[in-house]
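re: that chain from earlier
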Amino acid sequence: MTGIASKSQLRMSFLRYALVTVPGVLLAGTLSGQLAGAGAGNRWFEALAKPGFMLPGWAFGLGWTILYVLLGLVLAMLLHARGARGRGRVLGLFALQLAMNLAWSPLFFAWHEVGAALSLIAAMVVVTAALIVLVWRIRPVGAALLIPYLAWLIFAAALNFEISRLNPDAEALVPGSASTDIQL
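^ sequence. v structure.
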């Protein structure tokens, strides 16, 4: 045995990574949204004024599913790129952007921190742009797979900004809080 892997062995190695990373990232993203009460059924979110360019709820579920699959594939590519210069730093930056991503839903939907969520998503845009540049040096295809994610983050930041602008008291809004107290 020469120690050099064939193309099919390399492909299988990547697929083994992807079989773990794609479902793992997808599950983490889904759990973050579910635990935060994101989307339909969140009375606080439904009570907010929304901008005219707000997409229907199903589009967010579909969009995030596709994006989490792409993120899982990028992570598999990075893990598969053993020996690549700067790989450890890039994996660290990937982990940072993923942690920020997973923190956004609870911050916005569960804790109603619209301003803080806007700051977080702005930071995510910057980190993702830097990640694209660094991933490009290791796996150009991986960097290309991050471009739709960056575009979606910019769109989500615009939505977050407009929701913040249209709802200056969003943090204090508590819809459906029934009380038997008489207000004087």
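The chain is about 75% helix and 0% strand.
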